[in-house]
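Need tokens for this chain, all 348 residues.
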Amino acid sequence: MNAVKSNERTVPKFDSSSVKITKEEGLILYEDMVLGRFFEDKCAEMYYRGRMFGFVHLYNGQEAISTGVIKSLRQGYDYVSSTYRDHVHALSTGVPAREVMAELFGKSTGCSKGRGGSMHLFSAEHKLLGGYAFIGEGIPVALGAGFTSKYRRDALGYQDSDHVSVSFFGDGTSNNGQFFECLNMAALWKLPVIFVVENNKWAIGMAHERSTSQPEIYKKASVFGMEGVEVDGMDVLAVREAAQKAIARARAGEGPTLIECLTYRFRGHSLADPDELRDQEEKEFWAQRDPLKMFTKFMLERGLATEAELTAVDKKIQDVINEAVEFAEKSPEPSPDELYRFVFAEDE
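Here are the structure tokens for all 348 residues:
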């Protein structure tokens, strides 16, 4: 069978033998995934050392999705709407690691000026529309960005307006009202929006198969006459190919796409979660499919990089992470005098 089994569901097997990718492209993907993994590991360290507070939800295990989708977009041009698990999405859009780390430390040098913390990262410069604490909140925001792009082109005549908007969310959100309402509107108006479901099998402590009458989320797209695809969310090349096709369709005016990425988070729901509900066998199955290990193997077997080159990337990223922590620790707290600043938009 051309698939791998994951308990109740098979993960589609992606044939990477036909993938055409340059060394430069491969190293970009590898470096971005390493950045995400190392950053999250450092966040866990800082949290348990009492240097970081509040709710912190890590992305370990899901890096192939952020990298595969966001690195296929035009950086600083297309829009990304995230969730409360938003650190790595921010990094993939190009937000500097030091600004993300400073935000998690609640410092004024953070990308949200210390007002957002872990769940509310934002960067106008990088077209990051925000992280959202409540599930489904980011979907209408991404829809609005997609509508803006289409309206500027069709109604205002700006033919160069072909921005694509991507909304990331989890499997639990696919049972939420905003999901259905926004898919309907996006399909009706052929908006350039890509809906990316990061199906990591667990909505906090609720197993996905127990919470929905249709566990194959990508099939819900058919109700709206929308393209729906299922991909191996642990394989960055599979995610990248699906994203590139969806982006091309969106720019061509062919409407939205729903991409369901089958993945798994290697840590608990948040750093406050002891992670005692998930079966050990399930964890071990997905650990064997670590996206970083899979792509490292691909790069080496294809001759796109040597072990020494990948090790050099690892060291480079570790230096970036260490510098980010140092920057965050030395940065000032937000001034009490600016308590009401950023509540309303300011003149340039």
